């Protein structure tokens, strides 16, 4: 087991640069109109999709924890799931020795999006023009060529993000399956975005509680509101600590990687959904309106939740088997 | 902060494991759990054994007789300690090791330190806390117990409550109002009180789990030497606040790991079928316990953070502990009506969201000190 939790100056700078890029190109106001496919060009230019890939494969060589922290920022900006699909698709391509394919994905020449299974078929999330799709089948991820697949635009819960129905997928090829580390990485990055959603909802609610006045004082001075805000902070702390733990474990392929990732995947959707719920509640009437941003966090949490996948957590051994017989 | 458990640390882990295996012997946590003189004897004998072998005061600086373990080694020690099922850290030595001792190290005089610290480390003296009063619970700064300065003595009158192990303790960390007419945080002093002094009456209080490990303490003209004041006279609030963070951070490692063991034991004993509501609940508890562990390790290993971060961990621990013990007795069915270790721990867990700052006060602290929301109006 090994930790490296303190950021270097380089890491701080890259995350500051990311924040600035997101503020410029992906303000939340972009989601208020009708849904359009999100341009990922600024993210490609930033190198976001090759962030933690080895330098030999055209990547920037940052750690998985660095990449997770980048996706926390993406999560705060409620970015299209296509931005999650790209770094995972590139990894699946590399897992199968397709270096050229991986580079095309990370450089935005081949478009990818995320798919989820439903009772009746498949949903394609984010980019309707995608030629590749990633999908979780049980515990593993697959990368599938969907260039010849028909897709129908559907009315979506999250109005800001287009969604398409696909009747069936082509038969999977043997060289499209992710290695275990990549499937875990997908759960790490989705969880990181869910943490970003939880953080964004917390900040929006706390700032509102400081300025909104009722009964002659800011509502944030009332204990009922304070405790809601404290609960959001507790959720964020819990989720971000487990994200660090899991990202380090998966990045270093430690023995407890599967355990830490499964724990993370169980916690992340709950924290994001709960923070989004509280954020709407603290905003009161305006929180229920489409004019405030609160509902956008809730809907993004629902989108991401579908992408995370669950494992049979109880079947995994505890990382520190606490039995007296061991000692 | 960088923790790499290299060869050296592995050897430390193995050394800790070997010592625990060889020395744990007949010590039983149950004795400690149920209080009384037997509990004191069990706890102090175990601590004396640890002390003789250099395993007492693991988080204390070396110059004060502690082991001065790095954060990484502290984690390893408690992992091995818990894995070996050594006695709970929350026994009658807890206040001395995790609160009184660190306070004396930070604020005590040389005389106070040289007398008390070795006794705490070796289990020769047991400490209790004397902060809360019947009228001063969450609002500690409203406390009324007075210490009147008469020549070189303080004459103490008043009452303290919820003082854990007061019936077993040799000394008490006593927070009293020494400046007549002073208000709130001003005019308080942190005093070492010898529990054998004339005028002290201890009345144990039975808790809802049926044991009496806390007590009321009455002070009737108790004469304490002024030289027992720790830090400056009338500066007791600052002295008390100095070490609050220490307790929350270090003690958290041991308590959190004990909770992880409880969850794993529960998963093993429950034998829940996959896909059932119980297995889902257990999986959630396991994930929450993992996250609490991550929070604790990160707080210990990472530089910086605010002194209030301990509230996040303390509160998460408290509420998770209650959920876990509740699930545990649910698995017992009607047998939950009988006394037993799981039922006992379940009932005890109700103190978690009250003792050491209620859940409501912790949430206020998080909202005001971490999130910057406006302060509560105060009288």
Overview of the structural elements:
The complex is a heterodimer of chains A (327) and B (379). With 327 residues, chain A is of the alpha+beta class. Chain A has helices spanning 9-25, 41-46, 64-76, 82-95, 99-106, 180-211, 223-251, 257-283, 285-288, 294-308; strands at 2-4, 112-117, 122-125, 132-137, 140-145, 152-154, 163-166, 213-214, 217-218. In chain A, a hairpin with an 8-residue loop joins strand 6 and strand 7 (163-166). In chain A, helix 1 packs parallel to helix 3 (64-76). Chain B has 379 residues and is of the alpha+beta class. Chain B folds into 3 domains: 10-91, Butyryl-Coa Dehydrogenase, subunit A, domain 1 (Orthogonal Bundle); 127-235, Butyryl-CoA Dehydrogenase, subunit A, domain 2 (Beta Barrel), CATH 2.40.110; 249-370, Up-down Bundle (Butyryl-CoA Dehydrogenase, subunit A, domain 3). Chain B is 47% helix and 15% strand. Chain B contains 12 helices and 9 strands. Chain B has helices at residues 7-23, 29-33, 36-52, 71-83, 94-107, 110-122, 236-242, 244-270, 277-301, 309-330, 341-348, 359-370; strands at 2-4, 127-130, 146-150, 153-164, 171-177, 188-194, 200-205, 214-225, 229-230. In chain B, strands 2-5-6-9 form a 4-stranded mixed beta sheet. A 4-stranded antiparallel beta sheet of chain B has the order 3-4-8-7, with no helix packed on it. In chain B, helix 10 (309-330) packs antiparallel against helix 12. The longest helix of chain B is centred in the C-terminal third of the chain and has 27 residues, at 244-270. Chain B starts with a strand and ends in a 9-residue tail after the last helix. The model of chain B is unreliable at 1-6 (pLDDT under 50). Classes of the chains: A alpha+beta (327), B alpha+beta (379). Chains A and B meet through strand 1, helix 6, strand 9, helix 7 and helix 8 of A and strand 1, helix 1, helix 4, helix 8 and helix 9 of B.
């Amino acid at each position: 087991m090994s930790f490296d939790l303190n950021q270097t100056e380089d890491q701080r700078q890259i995350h500051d640069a990311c924040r600035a890029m997101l503020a410029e190109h992906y303000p939340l106001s972009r989601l208020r109109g009708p849904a359009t496919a999100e341009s990922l060009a600024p993210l490609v230019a930033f190198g976001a999709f090759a962030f933690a890939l080895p330098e030999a494969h055209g990547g920037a060589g940052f750690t998985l924890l660095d990449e997770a922290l980048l996706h926390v920022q993406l999560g705060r900006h409620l970015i299209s799931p296509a931005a999650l699909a790209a770094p995972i698709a590139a990894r699946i391509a590399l897992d199968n020795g397709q270096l050229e394919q991986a580079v095309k994905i990370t450089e935005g020449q081949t478009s990818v999006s995320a798919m989820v299974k439903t009772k009746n078929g498949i949903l394609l999330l984010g980019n309707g023009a995608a030629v590749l799709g990633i999908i979780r089948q049980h515990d593993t991820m697959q990368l599938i060529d969907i260039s010849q697949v028909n897709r129908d635009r559907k009315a979506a819960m999250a109005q800001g993000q287009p969604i398409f129905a696909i009747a069936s997928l082509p038969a999977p090829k043997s060289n499209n399956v992710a290695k275990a580390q990549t499937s875990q990485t997908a759960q790490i990055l989705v969880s990181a975005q869910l943490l970003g959603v939880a953080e964004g909802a917390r900040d929006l609610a706390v700032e509102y509680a400081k300025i909104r006045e009722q009964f002659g004082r800011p509502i944030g001075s009332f204990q009922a509101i304070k405790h809601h805000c404290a609960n959001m902070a507790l959720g964020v702390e819990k989720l971000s600590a487990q994200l660090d733990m899991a990202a380090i474990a998966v990045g270093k392929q430690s023995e407890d990687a599967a355990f830490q990732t499964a724990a993370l995947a169980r916690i992340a959707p709950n924290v994001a959904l709960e923070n989004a719920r509280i954020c709407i509640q603290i905003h009161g009437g305006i929180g229920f309106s489409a004019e405030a941003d609160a509902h956008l966090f809730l809907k993004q949490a629902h989108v991401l939740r579908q992408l995370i996948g669950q494992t049979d957590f109880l079947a995994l051994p505890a990382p520190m088997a606490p039995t007296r017989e061991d000692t | 902060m960088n923790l790499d458990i290299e060869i050296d640390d592995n050897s430390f882990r193995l050394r800790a494991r070997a010592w625990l295996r060889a020395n744990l012997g007949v010590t039983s946590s149950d004795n400690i759990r149920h209080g009384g003189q037997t509990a004191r004897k069990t706890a102090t004998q175990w601590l004396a054994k640890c002390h003789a072998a250099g395993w007492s005061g693991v988080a204390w600086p070396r110059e004060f007789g502690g082991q001065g373990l790095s954060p990484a080694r502290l984690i390893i020690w408690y992992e091995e300690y818990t894995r070996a099922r050594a006695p709970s850290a929350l026994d009658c030595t807890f206040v001395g090791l995790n609160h009184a001792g660190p306070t004396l190290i930070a604020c005590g005089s040389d005389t106070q330190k040289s007398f008390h610290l070795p006794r705490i480390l070796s289990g020769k003296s047991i400490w209790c806390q004397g902060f809360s009063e019947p009228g001063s619970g969450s609002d500690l700064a409203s406390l009324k117990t007075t210490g009147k300065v008469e020549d070189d003595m303080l004459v103490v009158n008043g009452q303290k409550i919820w003082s854990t192990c007061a019936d077993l303790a040799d000394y008490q960390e006593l927070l009293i109002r020494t400046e007549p007419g002073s208000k709130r945080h001003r005019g308080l002093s942190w005093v070492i009180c010898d529990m054998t002094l004339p005028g002290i009456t201890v009345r144990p209080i039975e808790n809802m789990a049926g044991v009496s490990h806390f007590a009321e303490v009455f002070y009737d003209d108790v004469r304490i030497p002024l030289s027992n004041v720790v830090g400056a006279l009338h500066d007791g609030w600052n002295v008390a606040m100095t070490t609050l963070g220490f307790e929350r951070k270090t003690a958290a490692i041991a308590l959190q790991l004990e909770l992880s063991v409880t969850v794993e034991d529960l998963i093993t004993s429950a034998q829940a079928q996959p896909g059932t509501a119980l297995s889902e609940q257990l999986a959630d508890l396991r994930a929450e316990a993992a996250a609490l562990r991550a929070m604790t390790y990160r707080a210990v290993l990472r530089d910086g953070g605010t002194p209030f971060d301990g509230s996040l961990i303390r509160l998460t621990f408290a509420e998770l502990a209650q959920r876990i013990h509740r699930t545990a007795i649910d698995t017992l069915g009607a047998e939950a009506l009988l006394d037993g270790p799981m039922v006992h721990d379940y009932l005890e867990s109700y103190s978690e969201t009250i003792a050491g700052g209620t859940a409501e006060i912790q949430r206020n602290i998080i909202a005001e000190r971490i999130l910057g929301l406006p302060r509560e109006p105060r009288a």
